[in-house]
Amino acid sequence: MSVNRANMQRHKIYMKYKEVVAKLKIGIIGAVPIEVELLLSKMNIQQKVIIADIPFFTGMIKQIPVVVCISKIGTVNAALASTLLIENFNVESIVFNGAAGALVTDVNFGDVIVSSGTQFWNVNYTAIDVPISQYPDLRISVYKANKRLIHLAKNSQEQVDFCIEIGKVLTANTFVADVELRDKLRMKFNGLCVETEGAAVGQVTSLNKIPYIVFRGISDFSNKNSPKDINIFGKLAADNAQKVTLNVLAQLC
């Protein structure tokens, strides 16, 4: 193949990619494959793109243009995925769905927490008179979720066989498996569940003025049984969180 023909072929591929990207509206993130498997099974996938070792799947779910990605676990990975969704795919809002550990005991395995907001529980600059969870140059404690998306998620209750609760989601790069720490986090921050990505998505979307929301299925109760429970109930939790996402998308059609 000549250089000109090769360049023309690359240009055609780029233009096709650009055309798909231009139509995308909603970005959806899961940290691990199990947190997007259900979505991908319902998706008309048009293209797979890998950027910074993160796979992005572009296409349609319920007639809604979406891009679904697998960020990997942790705040830095979630922030990177959110930034790439905004800058490379022009999404208008971001949904993060996955599993989480409960901070309360009046929920069941597989119930879903819809974020009213997200908060870092381990960001601490109080020694220099900065309020807990805030950074010296970013004075936000709680990254509030989009009210319309909260409303649509709550509307999903009639369509599912598990409970949907609305409340704060706490974030840190820590797997909580200790009742004493769990109860301390509940008392101090008034959160309903704890995980490792949500507030990072909240921070990036807040800075970029992009609506966002987090859906977290309960996989464990942040106690000594959590390492075992997440292996047993992780798929149920992830699937139920994705079911809420699918119901929200259905209401947007």
TrEMBL record:
<protein>
    <recommendedName>
        <fullName>adenosylhomocysteine nucleosidase</fullName>
        <ecNumber>3.2.2.9</ecNumber>
    </recommendedName>
</protein>
<keyword id="KW-0326">Glycosidase</keyword>
<dbReference type="InterPro" id="IPR000845">
    <property type="entry name" value="Nucleoside_phosphorylase_d"/>
</dbReference>
<dbReference type="Pfam" id="PF01048">
    <property type="entry name" value="PNP_UDP_1"/>
</dbReference>
<keyword id="KW-0378">Hydrolase</keyword>
<dbReference type="InterPro" id="IPR010049">
    <property type="entry name" value="MTA_SAH_Nsdase"/>
</dbReference>
<keyword id="KW-0028">Amino-acid biosynthesis</keyword>
<dbReference type="InterPro" id="IPR035994">
    <property type="entry name" value="Nucleoside_phosphorylase_sf"/>
</dbReference>
<dbReference type="GO" id="GO:0008782">
    <property type="term" value="F:adenosylhomocysteine nucleosidase activity"/>
</dbReference>
<comment type="pathway">
    <text>Amino-acid biosynthesis; L-methionine biosynthesis via salvage pathway; S-methyl-5-thio-alpha-D-ribose 1-phosphate from S-methyl-5'-thioadenosine (hydrolase route): step 1/2.</text>
</comment>
<keyword id="KW-0486">Methionine biosynthesis</keyword>
<feature type="domain" description="Nucleoside phosphorylase">
    <location>
        <begin position="25"/>
        <end position="249"/>
    </location>
</feature>
